[in-house]
Amino acid sequence: RSIFELWGHGRSAGELYASLKNYPMDKMLPYLQADSTYKVHIHTFNKTLTQAQKIKKIDALEFLPFKGKVNLKNPEHVFWILEDYGMNPNNVPEEPFHLYFGRWIADGQRELIESYSVKKRHFIGNTSMDACLSFIMANHGRVKPNDVVYDPFVGTGGLLISSAHFGAYVCGTDIDYNTIHGLGKASRKNQKWRGPDENIRANLRQYGLEKYYLDALVSDFSRPIWRKGMLFDVIITDPPYGIREATRRTGSQKETAKTAERSTENHIFVSSNYHLSDIFFDLLKFAAEYLVMGGRLVYWLPTYRPEYTEEIIPRHPCLKLISNCEQMLSSHTSRRLITMEKVKEFKDQDQNSYLLDGQYTPYRGHNSFREKYFSGVTKRIAKEEKDNQK
């Protein structure tokens, strides 16, 4: 919620004051000058204090060398006393378990989760990314003003919104013609068809971000459409896992015997399976080639937890793994937020570098993620039915 520069802490008031007295004076003095203004704010977790109690706690800090003037409305420096009274609202102790004192630096932006909520968004799909997670991804990508951000599996554009909020110019591609053009059946309950103004541009317009929208194109990611060169500052994406949205790519009649798919605009193409392992290796290869030096790739990697090892995370010689964070989906499945940074210029010999090491083979096991996912669901349903019969 907020960031503080911690000056002291303890399990009692005495411990807190002793800790504060040991804090280096040269670090305090720049914020306690006579020509500055300040205020002290008290925040208690799981307990409410009276105003008299708050003033008493503030007065107890008089040993600190405050020389400036108190300004409650617009101070230059704000100091906080934080008191933690535990997690049980039915058993609140008289004295706090932990006390902290520090200088306030900045508040977080948690209000964005509510203001950008998917529930209020104009255009959504089956797999639109939760607002909180999309902002976390933008943070991992270190998205900043005037960056160019690309999502190769753009869907309804949820990840573009978070990047545009931070001042980046955004674009994306997707193989689904209907989604890109806002056509076909709606994903929202009690709505049969999408309206004429349900599209990615309308979403950005809803949040006052339309000026950052470059475009969204219908394209098969397995067949790159971009000219050679380092085009993107950040690539942020959530590839399809084959659970709620199909993993597919274009193919010829010779490659597949599947029926042609037809959209409301008479757009016809033949699709074939796009294996998860191929999606992720194509993604890394694309990022290695089209990211600027120091640019970041941020994506979700689905994993079957009983078989997970770090060896299955796809690697590329041009990309350095920065972080690997797990989000639990069920007892047996999860997905990992993978952040990578481009550290080496892409050369032609890096084109199929993943085939040279042993990583490609173990990761092919994720091609059956869909079957493993539903096998777990089937087992859980069978167990619940068995328990209900007892």
UniProtKB/TrEMBL annotation:
Domain tRNA (guanine(10)-N(2))-methyltransferase TRMT11 N-terminal: 2-110
Keyword Methyltransferase attached: yes
Name by which UniProt lists this protein: tRNA (guanine(10)-N(2))-methyltransferase TRMT11
Catalysed conversion reaction: guanosine(10) in tRNA + S-adenosyl-L-methionine = N(2)-methylguanosine(10) in tRNA + S-adenosyl-L-homocysteine + H(+)
Compartments in which it is found: Cytoplasm
Functional note: Catalytic subunit of the TRMT11-TRM112 methyltransferase complex, that specifically mediates the S-adenosyl-L-methionine-dependent N(2)-methylation of guanosine nucleotide at position 10 (m2G10) in tRNAs. This is one of the major tRNA (guanine-N(2))-methyltransferases.
PANTHER family: RNA METHYLASE-RELATED, TRNA (GUANINE(10)-N2)-METHYLTRANSFERASE HOMOLOG
GO CC terms, sorted: cytoplasm; tRNA methyltransferase complex
GO molecular-function term, one example from the UniProt record: tRNA binding
EC number: 2.1.1.214
Assembly description: Part of the heterodimeric TRMT11-TRM112 methyltransferase complex; this complex forms an active tRNA methyltransferase, where TRMT112 acts as an activator of the catalytic subunit TRMT11.
Short name of any one Pfam family annotated for the protein: UPF0020
Database matches in InterPro entries: DNA_methylase_N6_adenine_CS, RlmKL-like_Mtase, SAM-dependent_MTases_sf, TRMT11, TRMT11_N
Stretches that traverse the bilayer: none
Leading EC class: transferase
GO BP terms in the entry: methylation; tRNA processing
Entry keyword set: Cytoplasm, Methyltransferase, RNA-binding, S-adenosyl-L-methionine, Transferase, tRNA processing, tRNA-binding
Tree of life domain: Eukaryota
Gene: Trmt11
Ranges where the Ribosomal RNA large subunit methyltransferase K/L-like methyltransferase domain occurs: 120-252
Family: Belongs to the class I-like SAM-binding methyltransferase superfamily. TRM11 methyltransferase family.
